[in-house]
Structure formats: C-alpha cells, structure tokens
Amino acid sequence: MALALALAGALVAGCGGGGADGPELSVSDAYLPEPVNPEVAGGFLTLRNEGDADDTLVSVTSELTDTVEIHETVDNAMRRVDGLTVPAGGTLRLERGGSHLMFLDPAEPPVEGDTVVVELRFETSEPLRVELPVTSATYAGGDGSAEGTEHTEHTDQSEHTGHSGEEHSP
Ligand SMILES: [Cu+2]
C-alpha cells in the first residue's frame, strides 16, 4: 500500500505537476436505498473536484460485498465502466437513472437505517472513505435535485405545518 502510494506520487510528479495543484475531491449526498432485490443494491453520491486537475474514480471496495462495480446508464440500460471522470472544477453525480455504484450479492442485504461504508479509489487522489446511509427504497436524493417526484404522497398525514389553506399547488 505504501509502495503503491509512493509510485502514484512519483507518476504525478513526472507529469510536471508542482506540489500544490492536482485534484481536490469531496463527497456529498451519499446514500444507498434499501434494495428491493436483495441481490443487488445501488449506491449514489456526488463527488466535487475543487482542484485544477481531473481525476477518475477507478474502483470501489466495501465491507458489504467483494463485488462493487461502477455503472453508467445509457438508454435505460446500465453497463459496467472502468472509471468515471471527476472533472477539474466540476462535479460527478451518481444518481438514480444515471451512473451509480453497484453492489452485487451483499452478504446481508442492507436495511433502512444501516450504514454502508465504502472506500472510493482514484487514479490520482488518495482513497476516500465514505459512509452511505441506507434510506427507504424510494428515496431519490437530498434537497435540490428536482427529480424526486414520487415522494409527494406521504406528506398528507405527516406534515400539517403550512395548513392555512389558500394555496394548493398541484
Ligand atoms: Cu448498475
């Protein structure tokens, strides 16, 4: 491990990079919906790169299973890829209907409330350890991402805060 990191460092230096530059990755919005099919689970997260060089997510390991693949979705069909680029100054989103982490044959199917720990490995950056909270099976991501249209029904009973009546947006 130490040797591998040393080699990676040497390669980066060989590319002419100075000390301070390179990719700078951070993770947000990580989650893993409780799988409907216990043999396969999908993981989602957002990777941000504040650095000035691209990086590539090349592999993922997890205590959940030995087999974690990186998938992308093209024309509603998912396929395994060798890596996904996190562009310099940009974002890589793993989200429902798009690219995702694929956990095959988990030893024990994850259940809502669990936490699944993964380690993301990159071409350049050091590995990142990320905790994915296991959410309900229909959860589709945090706040902004607009696409979560399926979870509008459960507000009827549980949230009566803005109840003054005048406005009912469809
Ligand atoms: Cu997949």
From TrEMBL:
Residues 148-170 have a biased composition (Basic and acidic residues). It comes from the Bacteria. Signal peptide: none annotated. Residues 133-170 are annotated as: Disordered. SUPFAM superfamilies: DR1885-like metal-binding protein. Coiled coil: none annotated. Pfam families: PCuAC (PF04314). This is Copper chaperone PCu(A)C. It comes from Streptomyces triticirhizae.
